[in-house]
Design brief:
alpha/beta; 11-stranded mixed β-sheet; about 15% strand; globular; binds NADP nicotinamide-adenine-dinucleotide phosphate
Length: about 425
């Protein structure tokens, strides 16, 4: 690409391609990154050293990522006057895999959120958040190690679609009247109105991705999380469409919880068990009986809540990675925000971005490097060499900076 206004293509490196729905990864892939706003640069420049060191060591210098900076947020605005230049999404699409730090939502910039905009432009319909405990990380529960789930959250619709009108607005009034006159349903005057679309297309492709993951990774179960007892035609439909996908596309690899007991005497025999739980009940289930849950697939709002609740159970968002994925593009990101009060202080925990990079390396099929980083992170935490957020909760910890934590992980690779 020669016509980028801001981003510079590295002199060496090759493009990652999708051929016949398979990712073809060269030994020197070009991967775009957005360093992010606030603490973004602090955690990015620490994390990238960890990625490079792990790849170098795991593959004996035969593989190397060629990083390509692309711009969004404050840095993009300074350079071009735009918060999200058009080329940024185009480049991420072209190069298939990218990683980013957190971005500030510009006030009055015409965007609801840069993250939401990127997800919508690139149709990144699955938000994936694995949640597991690292031994030694302080947690509010007695046995945090029992939780090990991967959450697949639908990322494009539900009440997050942005279809809503303010109390007293012309549109809200018109809708209230229309619904009363045509459907005989009363909505109190001056109500704000939000629309919750849940489609079979988006529900099915999300559940299909989650099922494929569960089957590929030999996970024991997938739970459809919904509020279908109350919201029958949105949340309830999500559950029904989920079961439909399992039956239509995975009948030889997946069995329902009902069949498990009615027909197979509780023996799954290596198959993935599909079940469903009401959203409010899953919040107590995941706390009381965490081992019964493995992959969770859910709608957008439920997914937002349950992923933070699960992260809290294993010690918080500081070590919670995430990815936003479509069929052809994967954008990996730290799940926390820009924490502006710590910006530029080399203080915060880079763990969330480092572990998002681990997900990225797994996505590339570079499992050896990914595993090495996970092991080295565990070792570093076990040695109690941690950033302020964990140090303040651990007895006898050695508090290190953002870059110091990265150095310790690299030393442990
Ligand atoms: P935040 O940036 O996540 O920060 C809230 C608090 O979480 C921090 O004050 C800090 O707690 C802790 N924290 C966050 N990241 C940490 C890290 N790496 N290491 C250690 N502690 C960390 O949330 P916010 O203040 O609500 O949001 C600030 C901005 O971020 C907003 O503009 C928001 O729109 C944006 N945002 C972006 C994304 C994204 O890009 N994906 C996501 C969420 C929010 P203590 O003060 O207790 O130390």
């Amino acid at each position: 690409m020669t016509d980028n206004k801001l981003a510079k293509v590295p002199n060496s490196g090759e493009i990652i391609k999708y051929i016949n729905e398979t990712l073809e990864v060269p030994n020197n892939p070009i991967i775009p990154f957005i360093s992010g706003d606030g603490i973004g640069p602090d955690i990015w420049f620490a994390s990238v050293r960890v990625f490079d060191a792990a790849v170098k060591k795991a593959f004996d210098n035969t593989k190397k990522i060629e990083w390509m900076e692309v711009y969004a947020g404050e840095k993009a605005h300074e350079l071009s006057g735009e918060w999200l230049p058009e080329e940024t999404a185009q480049i991420i699409k072209k190069y298939s895999v990218a990683i980013k730090g957190p971005l500030t939502t510009p006030i009055g910039g015409g965007f609801r959120s840069l993250n939401v905009s990127l997800r919508q432009i690139l149709d990144l319909y699955a938000c994936i958040r694995p949640v597991r405990h690292f031994e030694g990380v302080p947690s509010p529960v007695k046995e945090p190690q029992k939780l090990n789930v991967v959450i697949y959250r639908e990322n494009t619709e539900d009440v997050y679609a942005g279809i809503e009108w303010k109390s007293g607005s012309k549109e809200a009034k018109q809708l209230i009247e229309y619904i009363r006159d045509n459907f005989g349903k009363n909505i109190r005057d001056l109500s704000g109105i939000g629309i919750k679309p849940i489609s079979p297309f988006n529900s099915k492709r999300l559940v299909k991705k989650a099922l494929q993951f569960a089957v590929d990774k030999n996970r024991s179960s997938i739970t459809l999380v919904h509020k279908g007892n109350i919201q029958k035609f949105t949340e309830g439909a999500f559950r029904d469409w989920g079961y439909e996908v399992a039956k239509d596309d995975f009948s030889s690899q997946v069995i329902s919880e009902a069949d498990l007991w009615d027909k197979y005497n509780g023996q799954a025999n290596g198959k993935v068990v599909i079940k469903d739980r009401i959203a409010d009940s899953i919040f107590q289930q995941i706390l009381l009986r965490p081992t019964e849950y493995d992959v969770l697939a859910t709608t957008n709002l439920n997914g937002d809540y349950i992923s933070d609740a699960c992260a809290a159970q294993v010690g918080g968002l500081g070590l919670a990675p995430g990815a936003n994925i479509s069929d052809e593009v994967a954008l990996f990101e730290a799940t926390h925000g820009t924490a502006p009060k710590y910006a530029g202080q080399n203080k915060v925990n880079p763990g969330s971005l480092i572990l998002s990079g681990v997900m990225m390396l797994e996505h590339l099929g570079w499992h050896k490097a990914a595993d090495m980083i996970v092991d080295a992170t565990q070792r570093t935490i076990s040695e109690k060499t941690v950033t302020y957020d964990l140090a303040r909760q651990m007895e006898g910890a050695t508090k290190v900076s953002t870059s110091g934590f990265a150095d310790a992980i690299i030393a442990n690779l």
